[in-house]
Each structure stands twice: as C-alpha cells, then as structure tokens.
Amino acid sequence: MVKLFTRTLRYRFTYLPPTVKSRVVAFYRGSDPIDAMYQDSTLFEREIGPIVMQMVNVITERNKKGELWLSPPNTEARKLESTWSSENRLKRWVRNFDSNLLQCDDTTIIERILEHKVVDVTQVDFRLYFTHMREMKLSSNMLEDKRQVIDKVCSKCGNEQMLRFSIKEYIPVCTHDEIWVNKDSTDYLVEFTCPKCGYRFQSESWIE
To answer: Which domain of life, per UniProt (predicted)?
Structure first.
C-alpha cells in the first residue's frame, strides 16, 4: 500500500492544476523561511511519507474491524463480499480506492489529502469528486421529495406504514476477480424508511 499510494499521490501532485499546486506548496512552506530555499518537489517528498502512513494505518485498522466494504449494505454484491476473506476484501478495496484516487477529475480531494486535512480516507465519497457522478447524485437526491407512504410493516418497531422512494445508486459490478463501481451505468434501488423509528434499508426488490 505504501508504494502504491506514494506513486499515485506523487503523480497527482505533479499534474495538479497550477493554482491548486501553488496552494499545496504554500501550505508546505508555511511561515518557515528555511522552506523558501527548497524546491516544490523536495517539500512534497518531505510531506508524502507521513500522509501515506496515516492512510495505511487507518485503512488497516478499519479492515481489522471489518469496516471496509465496496458495495452498499443490503445488496447482492455485499452478500458476495461477505464471503471473501479479510485479506481479499482489503486487497480489492485498496485497488478500488487507488483507482478512484488516480482518476477523479475534481482535485479538491487530492488537495485536502496532500494538506493533511483528511483524517480517515475510508470515509471519502468519491462520487463527489467525479463530475458526472456528482451531477447524477444531485439529480437522484431530488427524487426524495417523491416518497410514497405504503402499507408495509417495519421489522424494527412494528409500525404498519413506511415511506418508499426510488433512488439512483451505482451498483457494484462483479467479475471473476473483483468488484468495482461501474461508473458508466446506474440502476434504480428502492429505499424504505420508517417514519416512526427511522429504520431505513435499501433493496433491489420490494422485500426486505
């Protein structure tokens, strides 16, 4: 992971837009007059080690707790992931994360990571940093106003009605060797929310 993330962040730093790169370098220089003597690349190499080690430590700890997942809960893809070993899930999650880190077109998240402003990288929602994915997510949020009250018993509190509405969600695609987020297609999921206790779940069908 260390070599992988170092290589990716080094590449992203090298090709950052000039204005963004200048902000990152200015952050590294701070107010220390000695730093003014160093080249941009030297300052970056000084900072990248601690950044990557924090990323690796957080990811490793999350994996030990069983908190690294590629797919949303209550989906067939999540059921498949649950059959993988911890090491296998970690490997696939890291590959997916590194791919997103390398390809996202909104450099805001890259800038934040390089400036030590992202404490837990496992909580980064990359849908916010791919322009076309962000636009589709904003569009899907508009569907929330179209929720319907249906006769369905909440399995948590027994309330006899729930709110139902369709949402757009990116469905992980499974192949023989990995699961990843298919950024080129979307599918509709149905989300149910209990207005009494707040219990919520998503389903690709009409049953829980």
So the answer is: Eukaryota
Contacts within 8 Å (CB) and 24+ apart, 40-47: 44/10, 44/13, 44/114, 47/114, 47/116
pLDDT value for 134: 55
CATH number of the domain within which 184 lies = 2.20.25
Q: What angle do CA 169, 170, 172 make, to 5 degrees?
A: 135
Tokens 């059959």 belong to residue:
83
pLDDT tens sequence across 14-72:
999 999 999 999 998 886 777 677 888 888 999 999 999 999 999 999 999 999 998 88
Report if residue 208 sits inside a domain.
no
Structural domain containing residue 140: 135-203
Q: What is the pTM of this model?
A: 0.63
Dihedral (CA of 140, 144, 146, 148) sign: positive
| Same-domain check for residues 59 and 74 | yes
* Regions of the chain with pLDDT less than 70: 31, 35, 132-147, 166-189, 195-196, 204-208
Structural domain contains residue 22:
yes
Which pLDDT value is given to residue 141? 44
